[in-house]
Amino acid sequence: MTRSTRTPTHTIPNLGPAYVTRRQFLEVAGAGILATSLPGCGGSSDSATPSYSQTIDWGERAIARVMSEQRDAAAISVALLKRNNIVWRRAFGKASVDDNKPATIQTRFNIGSVSKVLAGLAGVILQDRGLIDLDTPIVRYLPAFRMLSPAYARITSRHLLSHASGLPGTNGRNIFTFAPVPGYSADTETELLDTHLKHVPGQLAVYCNDGFTLFEQIVLAVTRQTFPDFVETNILAPLNMTNSGYPRSPQPAGEFAYPYFREKQYPQEFVNAFATGGLSTTPSDMMNLAQMFLAGGMFQGRHIVSPAGISAMATDQTTGLQINPSPEWRWGLGWDSVRQPGLANANVTAWEKNGGTAFFASEFFVLPDAQMALMLTGNSGYGGDALAIAEGILMRALQEDGSLGALPATIVNTVPPLATPPDTTDAAGIYGNYKAPLQVVVGEDGSLALNEWSGSAWAPLHSGVSRYRYRSDGWWWSDNGALPSFRFAEASGTDEAGNAYRYRYLMERVTPGAGYGRITLPIAQQLAPRPLLSAAWRSRMGSRWTVTNESPESVSWKLSDNPSVTIGSLVELPGYILFGGGSVGYQLLVPLADDRGGMSVKVPVNHGRDLNEIRFATVNGMETLTIDSSVYAPA
């Protein structure tokens, strides 16, 4: 659950339009905003400490502006904490547009992948109690767990909670629905039995919802409680988070914000992947959780977890990775980043988690040194601005209470002078990721053309940009400094079997959120030519498949314009299977057998997430296609 206009869930991360990526969680991409003098939207408001009046005024105007510009941003709710005091909390807009019902500070929102922080916290609580060891292979707790890759036996809970397990990504079946669909985590564990890892555990870290879903099964095994029951008993209740929980039955109207998409209201949204994205809560409740983090595991004199557990969650989990071309990306346990890049550029330590569902987007920050926290959540129509608003509020609050002398300067992306390019002839070719193949064309002058597969043809990665030229800072830029810049990076070494590897990545540099700093991340991996596909695979070229076992209450089933997928190939790289279409994007797979196609890339951070392994079988004389736990029939 979480972000992408090519910027990952900043902290990565998920989707675009709400329903479009049924197999991923919402990747909310940050974008800069400017405060305006628009009046605040309706809702409830507590009196705030006068010293934060300028911050509150800026935040209310920023939220009002995005709500006026994004019609689907029906409701937004915010809370800002300083030490043990909530200095600002307010709900804006309508919890139910159809009923003209205002959102209040008690209105619950689905916070998507921010829920992963609760999973990380559950992990360190269980370690405190001696029920698990984060570094013990999970097969000790799940002895029936198997995968097709032998390295599955080395997966630990730490790998699961820090995106380093190597699990494929996200089981997309029935993840977002309009009625509860039980059994999602058990269903995911079952489908993993017939799946390979995409990398060995600990080799790299790439956003992975499946890891948190599998952790639900560990909690059940060692506590005999379901994950929601364990969290509600051991975290939510002790923290007095009385407006929080994991909805497993329809809730009374008026308690929650309704989905609102394309100016239409929908029924209550259920997220059946509890640990990875299923919490429904309020910003005020999340400030109780934040107080516990700031107090080293204590809340109002009650011990929740040890200080060592809080420290473990906030420890950079990337230091031992074998492949890590984006070192500024510092995963924690449950946290997207334990040194959030935007605030880090102002020398402020911030733990951050963003999240999204099919219909909602959220940002959660805890600043341990500044003793400050922020929760911002609302309908996903505002999601592209969520990070910018959150960073803007926090920077101004830090300035107003004297923690910062002045607001840091935002990045001005001035295009540097041209420079003599290195020889990148061998960088030309086709690159793969989870979303769409990319084509790199190297010109005679060393410039680059970057194209993306649209489903039927190649189109410029950024509309209107035909060439990127090498500049004095070592990156390829277009003439538009507001667009990302690019370069190449390589990862090489020897794997555990003694085989040499060398991966070339196309790196992208962007200025997310409010623009306080740049981040770099690999967006695709170069693919080498392969032998031509077998006759069995060639016979499937052009075939279209439709899912048969999705719940009729599935969001994708009800909203998707094109729920089918296709099997094809690229002329430029004919040895690969081009799989996807509609809402799932396009991936290049390698044939593992005539009845199975496997994952072809190892792209860290976000663009190697949610990879597919597909397999065919004949049932009652008809060939079927299985992806994750979804079964497809010929369309």
Supply Rg: 23 Å
Number of helical regions = 13
Low-pLDDT ranges: 2-48
Strand % is: 15-25%
Quaternary organization: single chain
Structural class by SSE content: alpha+beta
Shape call: globular
Euclidean distance between termini CA atoms: 29 Å
Residues in helix, %: 10-25%
Describe the overall structure.
Residues 2-48 have low confidence and may be disordered. The two termini are 29 Å apart. Among the domains are: 425-526, no CATH class; 535-634, no CATH class. Helix 2 (116-128) runs parallel beside helix 5 (209-223) and helix 4 (184-192) packs across helix 5 (209-223). The chain is built from 13 helices and 31 strands. 19% of the residues lie in helices and 25% in strands. The strands form eight sheets. Strands 24-25-26-27-28-29-30-31 form an eight-stranded antiparallel barrel. The longest helix has 18 residues, at 383-400. The protein is globular, with a radius of gyration of 23 Å. It is α+β, with helices and mostly antiparallel strands and 635 residues long.
Write a short abstract of this structure.
With 635 residues, the chain is α+β, with helices and mostly antiparallel strands. Helices cover 19% and strands 25% of the residues. The chain contains 13 helices and 31 strands.
Q: Secondary structure elements and their pairing?
A:
Elements: H1 53-69, E1 75-82, E2 85-96, E3 101-102, E4 109-110, H2 116-128, H3 157-161, E5 176-177, H4 184-192, H5 209-223, H6 227-236, E6 260-261, E7 264-265, E8 270-271, H7 274-277, E9 280-281, H8 283-294, E10 298-299, E11 302-303, H9 307-313, H10 341-344, E12 351-356, E13 360-367, E14 372-379, H11 383-400, E15 429-432, E16 438-442, E17 448-453, E18 458-460, E19 469-470, E20 476-477, E21 485-494, E22 500-510, E23 519-526, H12 535-538, E24 544-547, H13 555-559, E25 565-570, E26 573-580, E27 586-593, E28 596-598, E29 614-619, E30 622-627, E31 630-634
Antiparallel strand pairs: 1-2, 1-14, 2-3, 4-9, 5-8, 6-7, 10-11, 12-13, 13-14, 15-16, 15-23, 16-17, 17-18, 19-20, 21-22, 22-23, 24-25, 24-31, 25-26, 26-27, 27-28, 28-29, 29-30, 30-31
